[in-house]
Design goal:
five-stranded mixed sheet, two-stranded antiparallel ribbon, elongated, 214 residues, alpha/beta, single chain
């Protein structure tokens, strides 16, 4: 007996990620979701999706009641790195293997992802797997036409910062502070440390000029 675990949507702009589990001997299939919030700031920068994927995979393995001697095959994608480590601890390294998933488990997991994005009102391109670049821009055009749905996009990807639609998600967080030189209120792109001085833009520029001519 074997459990095969695959993902769909991790390379797509829309929605979270579907994690599917399939047992070939009985044709059992079920899936769970890694919510899109794990691919948005600030969780994406923290790679929180890895831990969440590990949690989801453990839930799927429990749902399908993995047998004591059953092999567990995980997709090679790096989204499963923590899941693989946790499964090895729980079930033994000899039972866990990273593979290239093809065939029925891949098909079913992909169908589940397509169903989820259709539920948003988006109709995916035919043969989108063979047209990755076109699919990305097709999704982005749909988001431009439906800006209220941007909350369902993987806005944490750094490359999205170049597109106006997503720039607000990549703006630096600013913190209120009091300038240690002039005493005026200012904002800085880091959390102020009460043990260290903080300077507004004008005072910081003056200090830099003094250092340059010292």
């Amino acid at each position: 007996m074997t459990l095969i675990v695959d993902d769909a949507g991790s390379g797509d702009l829309l929605f979270g990620v579907v994690i599917g589990a399939y047992r070939p001997e009985t044709s059992e299939f079920t899936y769970r979701l890694v919510d899109v919030k794990f691919f948005q700031p600030p969780l994406f920068r923290e790679k929180a999706y890895l831990q969440e994927t590990a949690r989801v995979v453990a839930e799927l393995v429990a749902a399908l009641k993995v047998k004591p001697d059953e092999a567990i095959h995980l997709c090679q994608g790096n989204i499963f790195d923590e899941a693989a480590a946790e499964l090895c601890k729980a079930h033994g390294e000899d039972r866990v293997q990273r593979i290239k998933v093809v065939g029925e488990p891949q098909r079913l997991t992909e169908i589940a992802y397509l169903d989820e994005i259709r539920n948003l009102g988006y109709e995916p391109l035919p043969e989108r797997e063979a047209k990755r670049a076109k699919s990305f821009f097709h999704m982005m055009r749909w988001l431009k036409a439906n800006p209220a749905m941007v909350g369902y996009a993987k806005t944490g990807w750094p490359r999205l910062a170049r597109y106006r639609l997503f720039q607000a998600f990549h703006a630096e967080a600013l913190y209120a502070a009091v300038c240690s030189s002039c005493g005026g209120s200012c904002e800085v792109p880091f959390k102020p440390d009460p043990e260290r001085p903080v300077y507004c833009k004008k005072c910081w520029a003056k200090r830099r000029r003094r250092r340059k001519h010292a």
